[in-house]
Write a structure and sequence with these properties.
The protein is an alpha/beta fold. The chain is built from six helices and six strands, in the order βααββαβαβαβα.
């Protein structure tokens, strides 16, 4: 579904733009993703809308066929949010230990207590953290928008599968430019309570 509107109380959720992930040389277009996310962050903050910065600090405990189950700890700054995100005191910071930002956190409660009805999602990886967060938000009754040019994935085929086959079933998709245009049309400034 093409992007049609933003609710007056929409939150921006930035997934896993942290040092240990975003500094990986193998992430395509990460510089552009960070730049577009920064533009969205500035616009959401200017409108006093909720901003959520999410990092990942572990894995869910279950066994999988793929992916190492290593007990080697992450580097000291692996979970640190990128300085380019310019974390602000009013930002919600969520540390997750699963793919999605809702499953093992109080994010749903925090957003609903602020009256948020819609979320815009950016970050990495499209087919993992972004998709899982979008699925969970949709299941919790939020309107979901995905900033498709402000996300990336290690695997292009996984990125494209999410964009083409999954996201249209979870919400609306649009470019950063389209989202910024819709943000401008929101009337009045909101106060982050």
């Amino acid at each position: 579904m093409p992007l049609t509107k933003l609710d007056p109380n929409t939150a921006l959720i930035v997934i896993d733009l942290q040092k240990g992930i975003a500094n990986a040389d193998s992430l395509p277009s990460i510089t552009a993703v960070i730049d577009r996310t920064r533009k969205l962050l500035s616009a959401f903050r200017a409108k006093n809308l909720t901003v959520v910065l999410v990092n990942v600090a572990g894995r869910a405990p279950g066994r999988t066929e793929q992916g190492p189950r290593s007990s080697v700890p992450f580097a000291v700054d692996w979970t640190d949010l990128l300085p380019e995100l310019d974390q602000q005191p009013n930002d919600i910071v969520v540390t997750k230990r699963s793919w999605g930002a809702f499953a093992t956190t109080d994010l749903e409660q925090q957003l609903k207590s602020r009256g948020v009805t819609q979320i815009v999602v950016t970050g990495v990886a499209t087919s993992v953290g972004v998709e899982a967060t979008a699925r969970q938000a949709y299941e919790q009754g939020f309107n979901v928008t995905l900033a498709i040019d402000a996300m990336t994935d290690l695997r292009e085929e996984a990125h494209q599968h999410s964009l083409t086959n999954v996201f249209p079933r979870l919400g609306e998709t649009g470019s950063t430019k389209e989202i910024l245009w819709l943000l401008e049309s929101l009337s009045g400034e909101r106060n982050n309570a």
